[in-house]
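A common beginner's mistake is to predict each chain separately and then try to dock the pieces by hand. The better habit, illustrated here, is to supply every component at once so that their relative placement is modeled jointly.
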Amino acid sequence: MAKIFVDGKAYEVDESKNLLDACLSLGLDLPYFCWHPAMGSVGACRQCAVKQYKDEDDQHGMIVMACMTPAADGTRISIWDAEAVDFRATVIEWLMMNHPHDCPVCDEGGECHLQDMTVMTGHNYRRYRFNKRTHRNQYLGPFINHEMNRCIECYRCVRYYRELAGGRDFDVYAAHDLVYFGRHEDGVLESAFSGNLVEICPTGVFTDKTLKQHYTRKWDLETAPSICIHCGLGCNTIPGERYGMLRRIRNRYNRQVNGYFLCDRGRYGYEFVNSEYRIRYPFLKTDATTELQATTRAKALEHWADVEKTNIIGLGSPRASLEANFALRTLVGEDRFFAGISAKDARLVSTALEILKTGPARSPSLHDVELADAVFVLGEDLTNSSPMLGFALRQSVRRKPMEIAQKLKIWDWDDAAVREAIQQEKGPLFIATPADTKLDEIATGTYRGAPQDLARLGFAVAHALDANAPPVLDLSNQVRSLAEEIAKSLRDAEYPLVITGLSCRSEELLQAAANIAWALCELDKTAQLCFTSPECNSIGLGLIGTGNLQDALIALKESEPATLVILENDLYRRETGGFVDKLFNAAKHVVVLDYLENGTTQKADMVLPVATFAEGDGTLINNEGRAQRYFQVFVPAGEIRESWRWLRDMMFAEEHAEAKDWQNLDHVISALAEQLPVLSQVKEIAPSAEFRIIGQKIPRQPHRYSGRTAMQANIYVSEPKPPEDPDSALSFSMEGTSEIPPAALIPRFWQPGWNSVQSLNKFQSEVAGPLIGGDPGIRLIEPQKIAKANYFQEVPSRFQSKENKWEAFPLYHIFGSEELSVLSPGIAELTPTAYLAISSASFEALHLNENDKVAVIFDDQEIHLTLKSLPSLPEGVVGIFTGFPGIPYFDLPNWVTIRAISKSEGSE
Amino acid sequence: MEKPLTKNIKSDRQPLSLEEYESTGGYQAIVKALKELSPSEITDLVKKSNLKGRGGAGFPTGLKWSFVPMGEDAPRPKYIIANADEMEPGTFKDRLLLEGDPHLLVEAMIVSGYAIRADLGYIFLRWAYKDAEKCLRKAIQEAYQAGYLGKNILGSGYSFDLKLHTSAGRYMCGEETGLLNSLEGKRANPRSKPPYPQTSGLWGKPTIVNNVETLCNIPLIVNNGPEWFKGLSLTDDGGTKIYGASGKVKRPGLWELPMGTTLGEILEHAGGMQEGLKFRGALPGGASTDFLVQDHLDVKMDFTHVQESGSRLGTGTIIVLDDKTCPVAMVQNLEHFFAQESCGWCTPCREGLPWTAKLLEAIENGQGQPGDLELLAAHTNLLGPGHTFCALAPGAMEPLQSALKYFGDDFQRHIDEKRCPWR
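With all components supplied together, the output reads:
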């Protein structure tokens, strides 16, 4: 710690910080633009100028930039020195020379850092009387709106896009007062993390184009803390609503999880909530011949009361909350509750959980991943399966090279100097995947192979680390030396990390990764083992622990006539059409609770409209094993309710004793914690519904929420009473506390004088540190200390290609493979057509050409796809884009045959 | 009077070939350095010689070199770079050396490179110096053929490669760290210091960047010793200096004279003012130095004395202002140049310079307003050292602040009369 003096007052600060960071961490207001807590200092904007004095006797002092000055012990500065105050106001005056002053029509207005800083410096009178420069704006794709005239040239965008996100198609052009930030020509931004430009930009150059379609000011948005549901990482978000429509998603800082950033799927996938395919009322099919028809809640529940209930089978879902799954489990009984996923997927999840629960390797948070100094990725195309994990790796590869800068006594925060010293050096990152991945560009080494060959490499690495781990026989010298190189990198690291996941649907990969991490633990390393998880609550469903769809079919058949209750789950994405049809045929009644029409709702004789993440509360468990609560953002129109509430009401009909006790979410959580000890801590992840701050709830609507008395004036003359929220300490109104709430309940970042997202500094215990009171979420899975690693022994044999057969495995695309986000127009626009990817050699073997249509056949399954080459694929292996709209479930990986259907135009 | 830097330069300024250069004793400094001296001994010689950087800043060269990490553990490769970007308005002294005696620079780089144990040298050449480019290419090629460059030079075990890089042509490329970024293929934005290039320079490795004229003194110091070098000067700053004069003087040009020759004497070498014109002032060392006026003709043109008189020696190439030229127009021209050459990185320079240029343009065109001079004066403080990221804007303010001081009445007349009195 260092003692510094600010305007004569002594403070204790962390000496490894710069003065700007230190002052903001102390809660002092100092304006800035180019500095960003996740990007460090570059000294470009000159906005954070303060007066620094040599010693106590120095009366003159000199202007320095706080962001570029270390908070060394004994430092004396003044924020309020007249020259410093004048200089800061002048910097704003300069920045405003060319700014269009179009706040009233600017989407950033009301949450603009430039507005805030202008007010903070006191500049208000314009003396510049000459013409402003003007720029041409660019089309940057469906997510980002570009308005370059507002630019104040802080260089944050280009630093973020190129240096943090690794994008290449965005840069700064020209010089002096004509510098231009954009692409070399109009076009869709290539980075999957482009949406963060919206929050990085301190003014309205880059704004959310999807928000623009249904624009609402920040002060008019009803918001609540939420969790992203578009992959298994559980990034924290802030959705905003007005007039019953979800308007946008913003990042919600959680240092342990997503920090300051989101991927574009997470930020722009929200529009499915507003989809025309939403189910807003209960639907009933009164007899087999009629169509589903809308009805009321009462009628639906009456219908349920009449349904034969002796044999109810419940199918849970990895995209539904713990509470919803638990409510279904309670309704149908523990032994009749099944995970609505295939046997293969269920086995993969339980293997992963078993490894994490019983082994010595710890599952890392995304923040931990950023700190890893040697990484081995097995089988995962992270940018497409778990994008923010890929983003974290882009930061982690800088850990090891940071030593170069530290040796030169360059501060970590001195970003330009650090990058200059490090140059292209990247920490060890090895990527072994079936095909090329985007992250290969930052990898130390890559390896391409069929999933079982990837697993063999993994087993070989483990063996190279610890001779007690099983050896891999008949390994080529090349692979063996690669394994040794990887082993050496991991062994030499302080925080080695192994990443794999369920994408390849290969249990062998999980086992190989476990062996590596455990071998590192045997060497007394703090080894971390990260499994990606396919969906937002795959781990939660796995922890509840139950059978799968195969088991459900057996149970159904045993207990005919049975009623099938399906929770938030399109079974046609989980199993083959033939299998799912068998399930439906075996059930007399089918009840589906879901929020969107899909193949499964078509088969139901009762459909109940349930809340999306934005319309209900619940708990999800991410890939790390971190349980996190999301809160209802708004009260939806129609009969939409949380799944657990429908299920509770259905329990009444069954005369369940619990039903009447479940008045709010806390009651469900209490019951869940009691009955499932593994989940007992779920109670503690957020304050209960009773929580108050000096008797007050936490308002979802901001203090400046406008038009409340007029919003429904066309329906009611008087202002209706705001809806009650029995489930949380948040209220659906403006009234409530203005204090900073506990971290799990922060509905938005906003503080006096800080209207933009930069107000986040005020919510952190220190800049870029944990939120005040600790980051939300509780880890439910911790590693076990064990005497000796219990290695997996079964090493797969080498992949052998077969004549006229191909091993097909799944491929993913960030836009397209996830069920819900693809329903958002922007994401749909960027979704490629699903195809069958084959190696160049296979083309020849098949006598086929690019773009030919083929049938891919396995047993009774057949899907039709266009053919495209993916040269990096190993011979004998093909990839099928999975999860895409219109592409049915296909049991992968498997040996398939390929038949030509039609030749593409232009081919022979 | 000794003219060691320019002694070889022919009257037709055709470059010396390798043989010609060798016949005048060329490349003997390499022989001496590699066979008789250790790198640290050379650095000590340079320190003792009191050679100060001729690019404008006047930083002691030997001291600069001494910050380069030496020994087995030092990061490699190390670089030495000749800053031949000579973009300072009014400055053309390095061009004379580059075109007239290219082998002197090549030799200088080898000796200097050896002093810091550099592996690779670059000559960073101004884009417009096409003749110099040809001369240097030929000289480098000849030096390679003669074994002065490349592996194991003269059997000494020291290896050194030298490359010529022609710049893209921005003023910022002449700034030491802007040059490094440019050489790396990046925008020629400056870098913050510390870290200094001596420890983290080109590609993040130890690097020395010296001006051409500075470097060309090194073989002379090695051959003749620091005492000889100091003796060349009239003052404490060692050596000779290539002074220049441009503007409406009778004989604009360059003269190698003892360091510390007075401003008046140099102007005498230039033949005095053209007929009918009177001397009003001069920028002593390029466009980014403060005006000196009649009272300063006795100022000794070295780093210390010019500083004392309120300006800087800069590059030592004088731009003369006469009484028939409008000082406002002159300063406007300069500020327009600086505004154009701002890299756009830091706010005060990017926005403040165009503002001053536009104010000056308005004043010159008779559209000045009350308060404009105060605004200009405020900018000379606001764009001062430490306020901006690099020295460009503070340098740009030097002619402006001194013009306001010495020619303030002329500025006021423009505003009062709503026209330029010189038009």
